[in-house]
């Protein structure tokens, strides 16, 4: 039996009313297998709630069933839909969802929910086949088993505690996990890593003596087609195996990983694999033994290979103890410097997981050059739904436009492959299309009643799943989908029939351009950081300027920006293939939004927009704070509608007040800082403190 909705938790994008169209009809589910049972359970519950009829049959159906409005069926003979694809058809006045395998049927079921009433049950049904573009669509949790003294229960978590762990143990009540699995499947996510990539002692034991906790979680994810992955500590042979070394070429170390992995699969046969952060921010790794990261990753890949598992090996490797006076070290270069020479050296079941930008999930960064540098390696691209640098789920910041821009970026120019193609594996030399590493998101959920702290931040996780399924999908259309599923209204029973449309329009207006708004009032022109050190919330222009973290802007009285050109700077620009190496290198070609990432310029430097850098900073910061006000006004105009639950309204109200306050603080600190540095007054004579 799968998990029903929980009464004390917000249903997110599976609002009960979104099930009405299906649940009020006659629905036939045909086929055998655990995931087919999940679909049958879902149908049964929806029909019980809304007065429809659920019919069950084990044999596949050809489609034209006189007594059903909807037939969800496995195919009798393979139609080439793959493991997760499905096909929608109209046969004899009924809608039909066909899938070759059970996971496809599950995704087809959720597609019917997304379509709602008329489109799903009339000739308006969008018939045809759908398959996910990316095979691996993964959510990584930075959840600690034991509360960390600095990072808490969830590192960079802004939605309460972990839904898995509490005070050093697996939670007793895991009903949230089942509900989460259902939400993930409904947006297409099929893999989840259940513990932090910074693997402390309590988490390390999940691999061995606490493996049963992982088994329990896997059991809750399995009915929704989701495989569980585990972050492991590279030094586990020392700490757990009592070996004198963790050298990846040492036979005893290799044997320890092989045996340990065998035991994992004995307990969890569909275990997904390992996730590793090595030689990064204090985590152990192969460098300690003079080995390369390919040697480290391959050792784990070899242990996993007999069972079909994969290792996700993160490329987030840089020197976090750099001297700020040392201008020759550039953190942006680090991942490419370390990993590009290793192209072709990784096993087939080793996936190199690359953050989308070269720094660290900033509001604006160029695409990481690693993505274009390793055509013989399986690459996964990592994005961050937890809003570490983008307002920490106190600010509305819909990130799908950013991710869509990353996925659509073509590192080799217009005629070449896109980032989405690389993640899909299309551009890998000599390998079949479709076996790429996929897309990974750092999850933004916690044990908060609304899952994500800010209720509107739910849209980011939903949009991630939808973009991983189809990277070409329009962020604005995904947003409308999410709004429609989360706030479906009561149909004909709505006391205010115009209400749902008004609410939907307001939410769209609040969220659609909120990434741009956030960028407007925070660090300008791609320079990044300028946040308060450690917790990364709120403005602090020089907070990271004299630290060891490699995150500098170099503002002085003449100008600002990091010279990353080959001619006079760190040479980072040359890590890109043409045309981008040339575009980023040339001051007159570099896109405005990335100008300060690549160049150090004077405050009077003219942007392509015609504005000077300093005037642009003033203008965008005044505009950004005003836009934050406008977001709140849109909300106030609809928040008293009956279809907005009181507790949700209260939460959003409180968050929007904080966003407005914080946007003004950003505006004033950034504008004051640059006015004081440059001495250039605002052309429009607005108040700068
Ligand atoms: C999990 C950034 C964050 C860290 C995070 C790290 C990573 O540095 O601030 O909290 O650690 O990225 O991605 O590994």
3D structure, described in words:
The protein has 689 residues and is an alpha/beta fold. It folds into 3 domains: 12-130, Chitobiase/beta-hexosaminidase domain 2-like (Chitobiase, domain 2, 2-Layer Sandwich), CATH 3.30.379; 137-275 and 308-486, Alpha-Beta Barrel (TIM Barrel), CATH 3.20.20.80; 518-562 and 600-678, Alpha-d-glucuronidase, C-terminal Domain. The strands form 5 sheets. It has an 8-stranded parallel beta barrel with strand order 7-12-13-14-15-16-17-18. β15, α11 and β16 (350-355) form a beta-alpha-beta unit. The mean pLDDT is 96. The structure holds 4-O-methyl-alpha-D-glucopyranuronic acid (GCV). It comes from Actinospica durhamensis. One of its GO terms (biological process) is xylan catabolic process. Residues 452-685 form the Glycosyl hydrolase family 67 C-terminal domain.
Overall mean confidence score, pLDDT? 96
Give the proportion of residues in helices.
Answer: 25-40%
Intertermini distance: 61 Å
Q: Quickly count the domains.
A: 3
Return the CATH topology of the largest domain: TIM Barrel
The main sheet comes to:
8 strands, parallel, barrel
What is this entry, summarized?
The chain is an alpha/beta fold. It has an 8-stranded parallel barrel. A 6-stranded mixed β-sheet has the order 2-1-3-5-4-6. Strands 8-9 form a two-stranded antiparallel sheet.
């Amino acid at each position: 039996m799968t998990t029903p909705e929980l009464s004390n938790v917000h249903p997110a994008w599976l609002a009960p009313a979104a099930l009405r169209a299906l649940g009020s009809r006659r629905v036939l589910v045909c086929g055998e297998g655990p995931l087919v049972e999940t679909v049958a359970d879902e149908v049964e519950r929806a029909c019980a709630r809304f007065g429809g009829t659920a019919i069950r049959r084990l044999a596949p159906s050809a489609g034209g069933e006189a007594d059903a409005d909807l037939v969800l069926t496995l195919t009798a003979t393979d139609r080439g839909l793959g493991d997760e694809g499905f096909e929608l058809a109209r046969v004899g006045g009924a809608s039909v969802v066909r899938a070759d395998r059970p996971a496809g049927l599950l995704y087809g079921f959720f597609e019917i929910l997304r379509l709602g009433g008329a489109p799903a049950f009339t000739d308006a049904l969008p018939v045809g086949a759908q398959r996910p573009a990316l095979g691996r669509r993964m959510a990584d949790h930075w959840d600690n088993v034991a509360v960390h003294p600095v990072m808490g229960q969830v590192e960079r978590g802004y939605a309460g505690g972990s839904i898995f762990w509490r005070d050093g143990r697996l939670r007793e009540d895991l009903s949230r996990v089942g509900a989460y699995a259902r939400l993930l499947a409904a947006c297409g996510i099929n893999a989840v890593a259940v513990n932090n990539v910074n693997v402390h002692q309590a988490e390390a034991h999940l691999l061995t003596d606490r493996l049963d906790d992982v088994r329990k979680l896997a059991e809750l994810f399995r009915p929704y087609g989701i495989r569980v992955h585990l972050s492991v500590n590279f030094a586990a042979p020392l700490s757990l195996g009592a070996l004198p070394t963790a050298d990846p070429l040492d036979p005893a170390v290799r044997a320890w990983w092989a045996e340990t992995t065998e035991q994992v699969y004995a307990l969890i046969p569909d275990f997904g694999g390992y996730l590793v952060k090595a030689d990064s921010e204090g985590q152990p790794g192969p460098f300690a033994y003079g080995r390369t990261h390919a040697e480290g990753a391959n050792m784990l890949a070899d242990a996993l290979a007999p069972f079909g598992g994969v290792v996700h090996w993160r490329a987030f490797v840089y020197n976090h103890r750099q001297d700020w006076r040392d201008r020759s070290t550039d953190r942006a270069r680090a991942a490419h410097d370390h990993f590009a020479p290793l192209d072709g050296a990784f096993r087939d079941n080793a996936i190199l997981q690359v953050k989308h930008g070269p720094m660290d999930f900033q509001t604006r960064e160029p695409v990481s050059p690693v993505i274009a540098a390793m055509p013989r390696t399986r690459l996964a691209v990592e994005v961050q739904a937890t809003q570490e640098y983008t307002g920490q789920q106190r600010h509305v910041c819909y990130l799908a436009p950013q991710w869509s821009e990353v996925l659509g970026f073509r590192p080799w120019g217009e005629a070449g492959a896109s980032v989405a193609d690389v993640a899909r594996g299309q551009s890998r030399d000599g390998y079949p299309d479709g076996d790429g590493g996929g897309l990974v998101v750092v999850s933004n959920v916690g044990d908060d009643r609304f899952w994500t702290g800010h209720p509107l931040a739910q849209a980011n996780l939903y949009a991630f799943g939808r973009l991983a399924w189809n990277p070409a999908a329009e962020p604005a259309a995904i947003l409308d989908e999410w709004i429609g599923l989360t706030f479906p209204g009561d149909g004909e029973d709505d006391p205010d029939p115009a209400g749902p449309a008004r609410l939907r329009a307001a939410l769209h207006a609040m969220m659609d351009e909120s990434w741009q708004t956030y960028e407007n009032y925070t660090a300008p022109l791609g320079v990044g950081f300028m946040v308060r050190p450690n917790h990364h919330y709120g403005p602090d222009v020089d907070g990271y300027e004299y630290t060891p973290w490699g995150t500098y802007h170099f503002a002085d009285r003449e100008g600002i920006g990091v010279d990353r050109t080959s001619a006079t700077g760190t040479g980072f620009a040359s890590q890109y293939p043409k045309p981008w190496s040339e575009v980023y290198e040339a001051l007159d070609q570099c896109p405005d939004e990335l100008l300060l990432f690549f160049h150090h310029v004077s405050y009077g430097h003219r942007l392509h927009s015609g504005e000077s850098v300093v005037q642009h900073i003033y203008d965008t910061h005044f505009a950004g704070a005003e836009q934050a006000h406008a977001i709140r006004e849109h909300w106030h105009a609809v928040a008293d509608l009956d279809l907005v639950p009181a507790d949700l309204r209260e939460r959003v109200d409180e968050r929007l007040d904080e966003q407005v306050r914080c946007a003004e603080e950003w505006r004033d600190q950034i504008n004051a800082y640059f006015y004081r540095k440059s001495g250039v007054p605002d052309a429009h004579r607005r108040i700068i403190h």
